[in-house]
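Lab meeting prep.
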Amino acid sequence: MSWLASRAFHAPPIDLRALRARCPAAMGVGCASVVGTSLWRSSSAAAAPPSGRAAVPFACLGISTDARLKEAVQTDKAPAALGPYSQAIKANNLLFVSGVLGLVPETGKFISDSVEDQTEQLLKNMGEILKAGGASYSSVVKTTIMLADLQDFKKVNEIYAKYFPAPSPARSTYQVAALPLNARIEIECIAAL
């Protein structure tokens, strides 16, 4: 299996027995990508690539779960979280915005019962959270829309399109059984920083 992976990435084969002896806690493809670079350095002097091109090690994007590397984002210009969660979290050059509702920040009440008004208000609220986190609508890469009634899809799309410039973010839309406070719509997003 490791031979197959190394061939697919044009990387030198890795002796996993030697790797386990050096790093017993390292596991899976992650260990091969991290350790593969140091093994490549030691073996690249010994074996030149047959194509004549310079050998390049493959890299791995590491994502840390260290609590010190995440930062809560909070703004008074958007409704406060309704439970034990943050309005947004910054981590690994991304901003994760929690589900946003169409509540008026000053009152904590819905702007109205219409899905159009709630969509407009929640996107304004989302914009304030994005701004507080150092992002904007144009840096959003993924959204998830939860609707109380999928029949509202077209109405929501018309308003949504005004806020997200091309290229539009990737998106998923679901009809759900219920939303907090009997909302008609909730949207969450991920933005690149």
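Slide two material, second protein:
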Amino acid sequence: METRLELDVLIYPDEVRVATPEDLRQWDLETASQVSIPTARLFVALYPYNPAAMSPNPDTAAEELPFVPGQIIKVFGDKDSDGFYHGESGGLSGYVPSNMVAEVPVDDEYLKHVLMLQGFLPVDHTGMSLTPELSDVASIHEDVIVRRMVALFDYDPWENSPNMDSEVELGFRSGDIIYVLGDMDQDGFYFGDLHGRRGLVPSNFLQPLPWS
């Protein structure tokens, strides 16, 4: 009976030798580092979508993802030739019509994780705008630095504030977009603008967002 022994061999310009276990581990690490892992982006649903009733592709409606306004969807890759992304939400995966969703401009991986756990972002009553405009721009001095931030948690000044003068603070909901005016004060608060209301907001409840 013939016995065959298989060995991994490394071939160099000046030598040929049997690969050691350490050689194989290094090879696996280098190969893994070269594999392209698709970056997930977060989108939010602007409208309700029921594929069974609304899909332009009745034959493949079962492969599409249903959702409701405000639902967070993790999307992989670019949209296909039919205008659909491939995404997942709520333990389901499927195709997502690009004209029914909007991208959430978040690069921070921790914030992405928080938003996915949260599952929803508030969408205004028109269902169209996720980022409100900054109100009364003329009243802001030209030297003031303006930043966009998203609320990570709900905040009710009357219940959560450590300060006696909580009436000068803004209440907000998780997912609200707040414009921060200027730098943080010594107590860890920013001065913020939310839908035309202005007041102090706690910095540890907020996460910076890039300008889109």
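Talking points for slide two:
The two ends are 70 Å apart (CA to CA).
Residues 146 and 177 are 13 Å apart (CA to CA).
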